[in-house]
């Protein structure tokens, strides 16, 4: 999970380096801080909890010892009483008269007179509600308070499960003083019993402490109002009943499980929840009372110091975070500002500006970077100048080669024609000489010579096929004139290259320019090809109008020439945020992929000889580039061609 | 770079020094067990298991532990002399003793040096010393419930067979005191064996008296084959008070025990799966090691006062059930079980006949006599036995 998270975090693209720096600085500093705070708080809480738990455990142990001591005293008192010869005598005497004599008999009254004062006095001084003497058969043979228990048999069915019967039986079973706790009985929840033995087992003496004495016996009130103490007594059904409370714990409940574990011997420190709060509890078994003492403390109060510490730590962490963000912002700003400056200058270089320089005062790596940038910019300026020169020379060479090639053809024809014409001229000179001699012979009346010369002229004309020469010379002159006219046209077209930067830019309506270009087309072209115009640039565009007109004318010329009958040319123009886009699309023959790369080369043409020079798109390309724009071509054979001119909007465009 | 390396090295050294475990002063524990007589088998857990558990506890706490062994099967004077030597060197923790005779022998030395003996086995009680902490049951916990149960379930004519030891004599006195008081019971005969050669004559006497119940406390010979079955052949039910031991042979012995294999006791299940066979002394030995470890962890082993304070009211769920050392160090609150040995495989060899419904209070001086009377009886016995707490001959382990 974590590697994926960190991997994603690493791959997250921040909008700025400063944000990245700030994030990682904050993360790297705050992470250990938060970790330390969390660990520290955990440790502090653990320590405090440990201290509180130890104190509570100590309190529980102290309470257990106190209760155990009090019970011990009671049990020992009862044991001592049970061994009193006076009590043994009383037990013997009351047992002897019980059953055989009525309670109001003289014998019984005599016994009462003898023993009751002492036993009643003892009971009162000990705070007993009653003191019973029970014989081995379970008959209550004496009651100090003359209660209704007198004469009852504890082994009777009425007493099954009663604390009296349990105490009676346990005292005889273990032959020792015992205490029986019955928390369900809120009036009499403890009964003490001890066997009375002389030489024989005589019976059992039972003490029933009053509620006030019992209250002192199992007093569990705490001096500390935040620490509550309670005593739970185990019941036969596996539940526990808190002394002074009517309800038992619910079997299977968390509290019952804890009490059971403690009752079985384990030292328990745990947490419990009730409707009021969450409590830290410590439990300790009290076998003397067959129960468990529980010391509890409100968790939120007990661990209040940790809560305060947590709040302080949160505030401290928050303050640290703010300080860290402020410092980090400053530090990251110091680091990223030079980089931002570099980026801006790189952008300037990208936009064609070469006169850029950044501050290189810093002595660190960023300063080094700035110095290297300045050196690079300087080097770039020099290199660019060389490159421009080289490119210029290359372009000139390429152009010259094209020009030479294009001019060479007509000039070869002209040269050949002139050579032929020079031969024809020799013929005509000979012929003119013959005519001249003939004219002079006629003039001199030298008929014979004249006839001979005439004969000779005819022979010569026949010999040289003078009619052919005449026709051929006309043809040669025509051809030569055509060739020279072509040369003139080439030279005229080349002048455009030299005049690219001569014209001034002006704001013109593109739609108007396009419409003029269309209007200049021959009428048959406009009949042959459907031209659709969709100009969505309303504002005037700033460019060299005459040059751009040539561009549009060249593109439109190429477009309609590519079309056959029912051709269609669509001219669209629109703008986005940074440029104007003008698109010429036809549904003509298209251009083969291998040729697309060459269409802007000078003198490249696919048209038949004499129909085009191959300079239109080349000139258009140069003009558009001179405007800071570019032309993109998309073409598919059989489907058509699309040429898109992109011109930067005026504010982005460098002056041409 | 150099400075960084030096800084890292210095930091590393400091960290190592900080976290280097500090060697604590070695703790010493004396273990007393019968190592050479025929009772060595009885005490084998004290001699073998207890040192292992203590060493494990010490290793967990990175504590050095020095365990000193004393053989309880040697003349009392020599045993006390060896103990005194160790105690004089500052050792204040003693564990072990397989029976109360051993405990009584050691008490004077323990009292003199304020050392504390943690005693894992059962006893007759009647020990008046703050320096002995009983983990096993005392007579008040097992004897009176046993007599009551016998009266209700086995019969009323009782024959007592014990060994020549203070324990058996005092138990017999306690029983006779109760039986005399309880007119429904009668003690037909009391026999105290001196050595194993008396076994056949004891069996013959049992056959002669034909009691309903033989209360057996000659624990030194309970493992002698044929002894218990011989007694049972008299027609009487045999009820053993040897609370820490089981007879070896097939029999239908009844016995009172500090341990019952309770499958609902998670600690019993855990310990049994860990150790296999369990018995009361082994369980208490394990608890002793736990108590020592807890005291070690809470730094309560520096003096016998601290150690006693730690033991006072310590409670735990052990394999025997819930147990808590009495805050007056009278003994340990614990449950007691009466079990019948059975050859029935379905019952795993024993049937639970009775168990206390809650941990029983330990009373060091029970019954009808005062503590001073009991101490007087004990002194008389000791004097008559020639300064021994047990004059029965247990013999060497090879015999």
TrEMBL record, chain A:
Enzyme class: transferase
Keywords: Kinase, Membrane, Phosphoprotein, Transferase, Transmembrane, Transmembrane helix
GO MF assignments: kinase activity
Compartments, record wording: Membrane
Coiled coil, from the record: none
SUPFAM superfamilies (UniProt xref): ATPase domain of HSP90 chaperone/DNA topoisomerase II/histidine kinase, HAMP domain-like, Homodimeric domain of signal transducing histidine kinase
Catalytic activity: ATP + protein L-histidine = ADP + protein N-phospho-L-histidine
CDD domains named among the record's database cross-references: HAMP, HisKA
Domain spans labelled Histidine kinase: 402-651
Pfam families reported in the protein's UniProt record: HAMP (PF00672), HATPase_c (PF02518)
Residues in HAMP domain copies: 333-385
EC number from the UniProt entry: 2.7.13.3
Transmembrane segments: 21-44
Domain of life, per lineage: Bacteria
InterPro entries for the chain: HAMP_dom (IPR003660), HATPase_C_sf (IPR036890), HATPase_dom (IPR003594), His_kinase_dom (IPR005467), HisK_dim/P_dom (IPR003661), HisK_dim/P_sf (IPR036097), Sig_transdc_His_kin-like_C (IPR004358)
Protein name listed in UniProt: histidine kinase
TrEMBL record, chain B:
Pfam family, one: Peripla_BP_5
Organism (species): Thalassolituus marinus
Protein known as: Transporter substrate-binding protein
SUPFAM superfamilies: Periplasmic binding protein-like I (SSF53822)
InterPro entries the record matches: Peripla_BP_I (IPR028082)
Domain of life: Bacteria
């Amino acid at each position: 999970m974590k590697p994926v998270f960190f991997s994603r975090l690493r791959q997250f693209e921040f909008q700025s380096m400063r944000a990245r720096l700030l994030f990682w600085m904050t993360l790297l500093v705050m992470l250990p801080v938060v970790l330390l705070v969390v660990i520290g708080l955990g440790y502090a809480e653990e320590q405090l909890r440990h201290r509180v738990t130890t104190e509570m455990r100590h309190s529980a142990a102290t309470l257990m010892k106190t209760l155990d001591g009090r019970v011990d005293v009671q049990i020992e008192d009862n044991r001592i009483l049970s061994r009193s010869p006076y009590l043994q005598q009383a037990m013997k005497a009351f047992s002897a008269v019980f059953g055989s004599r009525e309670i109001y008999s003289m014998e019984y009254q005599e016994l009462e007179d003898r023993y009751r004062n002492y036993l009643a006095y003892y009971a009162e001084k000990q705070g007993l509600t009653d003191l019973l003497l029970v014989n081995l058969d379970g008959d209550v043979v004496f009651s100090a308070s003359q209660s209704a228990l007198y004469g009852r048999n504890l082994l009777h069915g009425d007493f099954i499960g009663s604390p009296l019967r349990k105490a009676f039986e346990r005292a005889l079973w273990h032959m020792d003083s015992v205490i029986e706790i019955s928390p369900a009985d809120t009036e009499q929840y403890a009964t003490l019993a001890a066997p009375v033995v002389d030489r024989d087992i005589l019976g059992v003496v039972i003490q029933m402490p009053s509620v006030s004495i019992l209250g002192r016996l199992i007093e569990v009130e705490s001096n500390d109002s935040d620490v509550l103490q309670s005593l739970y007594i185990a019941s036969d059904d596996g539940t526990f009943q808190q002394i002074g409370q009517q309800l038992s714990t619910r079997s299977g409940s968390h509290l019952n499980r804890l009490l059971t574990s403690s009752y079985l011997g384990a030292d328990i420190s745990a947490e419990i929840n009730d409707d009021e709060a969450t409590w830290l509890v410590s439990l300790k078994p009290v076998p003397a009372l067959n129960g468990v003492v529980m010391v509890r403390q409100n968790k939120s109060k007990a661990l209040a110091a940790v809560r305060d510490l947590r709040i302080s730590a949160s505030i401290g962490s928050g303050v640290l975070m703010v300080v860290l963000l402020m410092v980090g912002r400053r530090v990251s700003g110091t680091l990223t500002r030079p980089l931002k400056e570099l980026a801006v200058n790189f952008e300037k270089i990208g936009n064609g500006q070469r006169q850029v320089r950044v501050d290189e005062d810093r002595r660190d790596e960023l300063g080094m970077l700035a110095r290297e940038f300045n050196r690079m910019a300087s080097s770039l300026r020099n290199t660019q100048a060389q490159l421009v020169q080289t490119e210029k020379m290359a372009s000139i060479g390429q152009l010259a080669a094209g020009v030479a090639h294009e001019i060479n053809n007509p000039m070869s024809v002209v040269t050949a024609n002139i050579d032929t014409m020079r031969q024809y001229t020799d013929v005509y000179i000979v012929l003119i000489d013959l005519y001249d001699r003939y004219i002079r012979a006629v003039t001199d009346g030298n008929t014979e010579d004249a006839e001979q010369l005439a004969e000779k002229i005819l022979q010569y004309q026949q010999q040289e096929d003078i009619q052919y020469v005449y026709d051929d010379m006309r043809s040669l002159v025509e051809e030569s004139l055509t060739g020279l006219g072509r040369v003139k046209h080439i030279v005229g077209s080349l002048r455009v290259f030299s005049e690219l930067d001569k014209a001034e830019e002006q704001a013109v309506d593109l739609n108007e320019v396009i419409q003029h270009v269309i209007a200049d087309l021959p009428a048959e072209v406009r009949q042959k090809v459907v031209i659709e115009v969709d100009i969505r640039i309303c504002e005037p565009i700033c460019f060299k109008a005459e040059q751009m007109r040539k561009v549009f004318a060249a593109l439109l010329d190429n477009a309609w020439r590519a079309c056959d009958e029912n051709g269609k040319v669509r001219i669209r123009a629109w703008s986005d945020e940074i440029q104007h886009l003008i698109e010429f699309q036809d549904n003509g023959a298209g251009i083969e992929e291998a040729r697309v790369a060459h269409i802007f080369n000078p003198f490249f043409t696919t048209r038949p000889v004499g129909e085009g020079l191959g300079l239109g798109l080349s000139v258009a390309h140069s003009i558009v580039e001179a405007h800071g724009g570019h032309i993109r071509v998309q073409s598919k054979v059989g489907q058509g061609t699309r040429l898109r001119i992109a011109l930067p909007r005026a504010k982005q465009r460098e002056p041409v | 770079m150099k400075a960084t390396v030096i800084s890292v090295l210095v930091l590393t050294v400091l960290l190592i020094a900080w976290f280097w475990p500090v060697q604590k002063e070695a703790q010493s524990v004396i273990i007393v067990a019968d190592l050479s007589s025929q009772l060595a088998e009885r005490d084998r857990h004290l001699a073998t298991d207890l040192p292992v558990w203590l060493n494990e506890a010490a290793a967990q706490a990175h504590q050095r532990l020095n365990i000193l062994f004393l053989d309880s099967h040697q003349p009392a004077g020599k045993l006390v002399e060896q103990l005194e030597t160790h105690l004089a060197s500052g050792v204040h923790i003693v564990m072990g003793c397989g029976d109360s005779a051993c405990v009584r022998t050691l008490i004077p030395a323990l009292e003199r040096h304020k050392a504390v003996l943690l005693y894992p086995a059962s006893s007759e009680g009647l020990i008046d010393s703050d320096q002995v902490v009983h983990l096993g049951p005392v007579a008040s916990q097992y004897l009176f419930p046993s007599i009551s149960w016998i009266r209700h379930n086995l019969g009323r004519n009782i024959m007592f067979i014990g060994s020549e030891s203070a324990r058996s004599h005092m138990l017999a006195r306690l029983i006779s005191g109760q039986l005399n008081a309880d007119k429904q019971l009668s003690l037909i005969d009391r026999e105290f064996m001196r050595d194993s050669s008396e076994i056949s004559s004891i069996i013959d006497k049992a056959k002669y008296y034909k009691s309903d119940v033989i209360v057996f406390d000659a624990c030194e010979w309970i493992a002698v084959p044929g002894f218990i079955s011989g007694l049972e052949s008299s027609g009487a039910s045999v009820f053993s008070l040897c609370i820490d031991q089981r007879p070896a042979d097939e029999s239908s012995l009844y016995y009172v025990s500090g341990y019952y294999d309770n499958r609902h006791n998670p600690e019993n299940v855990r310990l049994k799966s860990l150790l296999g066979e369990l018995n009361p002394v082994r369980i208490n030995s394990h608890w002793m090691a736990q108590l020592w470890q807890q005291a070690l962890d809470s730094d309560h082993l520096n003096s016998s006062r601290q150690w006693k304070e730690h033991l006072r009211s310590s409670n735990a769920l052990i394999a025997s059930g819930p147990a808590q050392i009495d805050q007056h160090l009278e003994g340990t609150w614990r449950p007691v079980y009466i079990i019948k040995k059975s050859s029935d495989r379905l019952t795993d060899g024993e049937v639970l006949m009775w168990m206390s419904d809650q941990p029983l209070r330990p009373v060091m001086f029970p019954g009808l006599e005062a503590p001073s009377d009991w101490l007087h009886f004990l002194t008389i016995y000791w004097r008559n036995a020639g300064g021994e707490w047990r004059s029965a001959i247990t013999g060497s382990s090879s015999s």
